Amino acid sequence: MFLGYNTNGFSYHQLTDAIEIIAELGYRGIGLTLDVHHLDPFRTTRSEITAVRKILESHNLRCVIETGARFILDRRRKHQPTLLSPVDSERRSEFLRKSIEIAQELNADCVSFWSGTPTEPENREILEQRLIDHCLRLCDYAASRQVKLAFEPEPGMLIDKTAEFEILFHKVNHPSFGLTLDIGHLICLEEPVRDTILRWKDHLWNVHLDDMKRGIHDHLMFGEGEVNFQETFATLKEIHFNYGAYVELSRHAHDAVRTAEKSFRFLSSYLTE
């Protein structure tokens, strides 16, 4: 297990500068959020991807590909369209396929994604089947490129809790399909941290770290919420988690360097206990 940092917390930096700073602070992984100015999958060139790969290799950094950019597909609507959209869900699917291709080029541990929120009043069964169909096709595409997909339950989305993910997981039933777990989300939705980690130990490929309070989906600086980090890290060590635990504080990007530095100091003490 190692600490990483999500580039959505460096949204005002050039990507190469962000990676250099994150590495210098001591992190061993990059959560690379593909965004309009950070390897936009629809516009980036092979040479840009190669340059990022070389920087990662030079610092011996692992990475995951994150796909939660807010306005990359629609400049007016946050996180739209999604895999649930009745008309243009294929646009989201195309974005994810291109993300898988970048993940392959960067030798990423996984591509992380979520269901999204429906914008039309459709029957839940129809929405779930649409999501399952997309997930199956994406899993086949990822498997053909030896890339793992890690699905993230997200508060307010169709698949929000791990109980909902469990249903989806069994319906997709694909070896390339695993879990991204945001520890703060568990607190927000009042799910047990230890039991959840233990339940998903064989399919947990990506962890997000932030602090959060019960009932409030707000990514807080460490120490400002209710997450028990001693329990969290102890349980991850217990399952021999050998992927990255990535800080996700996108709303702190205005103070990116100090936030990343403070986060590393706070979390590294738990990592070495």
TrEMBL record:
Q: Pfam families given for it? A: AP_endonuc_2
User: Which InterPro entries does this UniProt record tie to the protein?
Assistant: IolE/XylAMocC-like, Xyl_isomerase-like_sf, Xyl_isomerase-like_TIM-brl
The protein's name: Sugar phosphate isomerase/epimerase
UniProt keywords, alphabetically: Isomerase
What residue stretches are annotated with the Xylose isomerase-like TIM barrel domain?
Answer: 20-269
Keyword Disulfide bond (UniProt): no
User: What is the species listed in this Swiss-Prot or TrEMBL entry?
Assistant: Telmatocola sphagniphila
Example GO molecular function: isomerase activity
